[in-house]
Amino acid sequence: MTSPQLKTFANDWGQRPYRLWLPQEHPPRFLVTGLHGCFMDSQRMALDTRLAELVVNQLGGALLCPQQDRQANEWMGWNWFLPENQKTNGAGETVLLRQLITDTLFQLKISRDRSGLIGISAGSAMATNLAFNCPQLFKCGVFIAGPAFASAQSAEEGLQVMQSGPTSEPTSPPFQLPRALLFHGEKDSVVNTRHLDALQKQWEQSIDPVAAKVVQVETAFSWETQLTTSTNANVFTSHLVKNMAHAWPGGRQGCDFMSPEHEQGMGIILGFFSDSLLPQV
Known about the structure:
Helix 5 (155-164) links the parallel strand 6 (140-144) and strand 7 (179-185). The protein is built from seven helices and ten strands. The protein has a single domain (7-276), classed as Rossmann fold (3-Layer(aba) Sandwich). The radius of gyration is 17 Å and the shape is globular. The protein has a ten-stranded mixed beta sheet with strand order 1-2-4-3-5-6-7-10-9-8, sandwiched between helices. The relative contact order is 0.14. It is of the alpha/beta class. The two termini are 30 Å apart.
């Protein structure tokens, strides 16, 4: 799949490169924003993961992949741990990304209820920053192998909590968050699996706990947890993926941070975006 040209978006908070994949035969039906992890870039986020194939070719959506600047982070990771990126009124990279997404939705004439989000590792953590800062911008989000929201306030603390798990009670959102799909490998040695528990708690705290219903099942793929409301609306589905390390559940053979043997995860992501972002007939 040919990659589109790398462009640059700029506002008062800085500038970042990005790529935008579009279907060739019709206007895009929805938009998914993909945030890469450390040591990745926009092209790898789209192609190594097979996300462009899934979103654009199979579902007919647009895929927006912003790219971190090495001058902002030498590991090419999003600065999810900086306090200015975690404020509910938004600042720094959060505002930059929010404006890029908003402008892209306007350019493509796509409504916010057709806007989705996905990230891995540092990109997943940055995606939670966006979900907490501007939940109205997204119908749904997929969060893979990432730390819980506001679990660190510096780069040093970020590295510590990635290994140990959150050291304090998870920050509670003052509003309902977008519907979520969570993945974490049970053998992840980079980001502690306790972050999956913390993310579940943060999403649970965003709704009326009296109305919440939790269902847990074990499959050959994962230990799965679903949280629904009293009206059976899905709040989140989480997967602690069996025998998976710090990786994307699926992706291309021979690519870093991909786990092709867990390809079932791609089918779950496909169904999640289809159910959340496409008109139901």
